[in-house]
Amino acid sequence: MSADRQLTAVPRLLKPSEQLIIVVLLVLGTIAVDTTLPASDVMRRELGCASDCIQAGFSSFFIGFALGQLGFGPLSDVIGRRSALLIGLVTFVLASMLLASAQSSAYLPHLRLLQAIGAASGPVLGRALIRDYVPASRLTNSLSLVITFAGFAPMIAVPIGGIVADAWGWRAVFYMQAVIGTALFAGVALIFPVRHLNDSGFLNGLPHIPGLLRGLLLEPWIYIVSFVWSANLIFVVNSKSLFRNFGELSPTGYSLYYSAVVAGIPCGAYLVRFISGALSSQALVFVIGIAAAVSTLAMTLAMQLGVVSIFLGSAIIFTICVGATLPLTVGLVFVRHTTFVGTRSAVLGAFQYTFGALAIFGVNSLHIQTQSIGYVAFLLCLLSTAVSGGALMLHDLHTSQNSPE
Fold it and tell me: Mapping DSSP to helix (H, G, I), strand (E, B) and coil, where does residue 316 land?
């Protein structure tokens, strides 16, 4: 068997170089979105588009991000993680270059859609690579560590985007994204030289795909992480309007406020390493969901009352909850499975960003006022808590039925 035909890697801890590449792959979508946030007003003015054209670009991005994951996940089970990643990164780089040279807003949603499809290869295959390498007993801790580092991306991406936009204009932001994609392409080609496939072989396992999809559609943890992530995306996309409620901010000033809030995501992800032994993962997801719902409600009330300190504190607690939910729920989706990992990762990511795109589209279509956006996030967190509560009860019932008398 040649090196390019090697099957799934033997379980082991990831090397630092592999962890670094996977972290950047996981946050490729975040880089593409967050670095453009500070420049969104300037883009709108220079391209001469209406106030909602940038939001339409974000909606297109999240739809493309969901579709791209559904494509690249199964593709990687057929042709290998490395080859699928290289195709996705080339697509991302080309779309970023086209966005940088755009002269009109007419094609902005289409180019953002294309960029998102390429960017989607990063997180869907980054998750798959973690599952390929890491044994089940270490999966949650490894996810916690990688997501912790990935959680710093919004803190870094938004300030960098603001600085680049202030210094060289919004087009330079997209050129920067193209450079990052090119560097990732080189890293993947050098550090992951082996093709990783399912032990069973994707084509031989095709008859099992309908059953796999049915099982994933009934997997509560996919819905839970999708609801929480949708609430987070609503906050991210509308963050400039939310902060503007307390006064006008420059791109750099907005970046600093935003970074302070999203610092909660890596903190929450790292916290999982210390609390995962106190309760079961299922119970922790339920408790964290309650905290997320309470924090979004407090954040909304503080915004309506104009109390910036409570708003910021509640927003940080919310992002801590988001960060803690991610490794726990992703671990619960993957922990029992070693086959069709790319496909499982694709369905997980597609759900997250389809729900997120629908939530953003709903907020924009219904013209929900800025001060009421938090109520949408609150309802999504309530849904997450309700589903996790039901899943926890079923888990406890199943455990009690199978325990010895």
Answer: helix
Q: Could you list the pLDDT tens digit for every one of the 405 residues in the chain? A: 333 333 445 555 677 788 889 889 999 998 998 888 887 778 878 877 766 666 667 778 888 888 898 889 888 888 888 889 999 999 999 999 999 988 877 778 889 899 999 999 999 988 888 887 777 777 778 888 888 888 888 778 888 888 898 889 889 999 999 999 999 999 998 887 655 444 445 555 555 566 666 767 778 888 998 999 899 888 877 887 787 777 666 766 777 777 788 889 999 999 998 887 778 888 999 999 999 999 999 998 988 888 888 988 999 999 999 999 988 888 888 776 666 777 888 888 888 888 887 888 788 777 777 777 888 889 999 999 999 888 888 766 766 656 555
Whole-prediction pTM value?
0.75
* Structure-token match 């044994």, residue found: 135
CA distances from 365 to 53, 354, 359, 369 (A): 13, 16, 10, 11
Question: Is domain 10-193+202-397 given the CATH code 1.20.1250.20 in the classification?
Answer: yes
Q: Which residues of 236-253 are buried (b: 16+ CB within 10 A; e: fewer)?
A: bbbbbebbeeeeebebee
